[in-house]
Amino acid sequence: MLEKFSFRKEKTDSKGSVYSLEQIDRSSVPNHIAIIMDGNGRWAKKRGLPRVAGHHEGMKVVRKIVKASNEVGIRALTLYAFSTENWKRPKTEVDYLMKLPEEFLGTFLPELIEANVQVRVMGNKDQLPPHTRNAITKAISETRTNDGLILNFALNYGSRFEIIEGIKSLLKESNEGKLNIEEINEEVFERFLLSAGLKDPDLLIRTSGEIRLSNFMLWQLAYSELWFTDILWPDFNENHFYQAIVEYQRRTRRFGGV
Ligand code: V07
Q1: CA distance 166 to 156
Q2: For 25-43, b where at least 16 C-beta lie within 10 A, e where not — what string?
Q3: Which active-site residues does the annotation give?
C-alpha cells in the first residue's frame, strides 16, 4: 500500500521485479542504444483510433526516452523513425509521418539544445518532402556543436540500401585512385556507411513483439545485444528502457574480469 504514495518512478514486471534508474550500474552503461519503435498502429487500433494517433503518441515517447538516455549517460541513441519500405503505406499516413519531424523539432528543439543534444539524421534525405528536409537541416545545423547525447534518427533508412550506396562510393574512390583494393577492411568500409563516426550499437531494443531486424543496421548490429519486448511503442516508458539496460548489464557482466 505504501507504494501507492511513493514518488519513485518505477514499474513492476510480471515476476514482480522492479526496474528503476538506481539499478543501473553507472560504470558500464551501453555507449550506443538503437531502437525499432514498433507497435504504434496496433496501439491505435486497440483503442479504435486512426493509425496516425499511434504515431503521434509514439512521438511523445521519443522525448521521454531521450531524457532517460541523458540521465543514464548514454552517448548515442539511434531511433528507427521511417524505413525505405514505409513509402508503401497509404499516402495519407506517409504525409502525416512526414510532418512529425517538424512537429517534434518545433516543440522540442529548444529543450534538445538546452540539454546539449546533437541531432543527426541517417537516411536518404533527397527523397524527403522539402518541408521535412528543411526542418531536419535546421535542427542538425543548430545542434552541430553540441557534445552531449547524439540523437540519431534513421529516417528513410534501409540497411541494404546503405550498404550498396557505401559500395558505390567506395568503388568511386577506388576508380579515382584514392583507395587501393588491398587497403579495404572493416574499418575502411565503415567510413562509407551512413553511421560513419558512430560506434556500433551495444544494445538493440525492439518493441511490439516482432523478433526480427527488418533491414535495420545489419552491418552495425553484428555483435550487439538484442532485447525484445511485447510492449507497444506508445506504452513504452523510462522503466522499460531501464529494464533493457539492466538486462544488458547482466548479460555482459564480466565476473572477476581484469
Ligand atoms: C516519427 C514517432 C515515433 C514512433 C515511430 C513512428 C512515428 C520523431 C521523428 C523525428 C525524425 C527526425 C527528426 C526529428 C524527429 C519522427 C517520423 C516518425 C517519420 F529530425 N518521431 N517520429 N519521424 N514517429
Answers
A1: 16
A2: eeeebbebbbbbbbbbbbb
A3: 38, 86
Domains along the chain with CATH numbers: 27-158+203-249 (3.40.1180.10)
With contact defined as beta carbons under 8 Å apart, do 9 and 239 qualify? yes
This prediction has a pTM of: 0.93
Beta strands of the chain (E only): which ranges?
Answer: 11-12, 18-19, 32-36, 76-83, 118-122, 150-157, 203-206, 225-228
Q: Is 121's C-beta closer than 6 angstroms to any atom of ligand 1?
A: yes
Sign, Cα dihedral of 36, 39, 44, 50: positive
Task: Tell the residue nearest (CA) to atom 4 of ligand 1.
Answer: 58
C-alpha to C-alpha distance for 195 and 173, rounded to whole angstroms: 19
Rounded CA separation 79/202 (Å): 14
Band the pLDDT of 4: cuts 50, 70, 90. very low
Q: Is the CB of 151 under 6 A from ligand 1?
A: no
CA of 169 to the centre of ligand 1 (A): 28
Closest approach atom of ligand 1 to CA 234: 4
Determine the Cα–Cα distance for residues 9 and 169; give it in Å rounded to an integer. Answer: 48
pLDDT tens figures, 181-195: 999 999 999 999 999
What is the per-residue pLDDT across 25-80, written as a single tens digit (0 to 9) for each? 999 999 999 999 999 999 999 999 999 999 999 999 999 999 999 999 999 999 99
Q: How far is the CA of 36 from the centre of ligand 1 (A)?
A: 11
Task: With residue 39 as reference, give the H or E element that holds it.
Answer: none
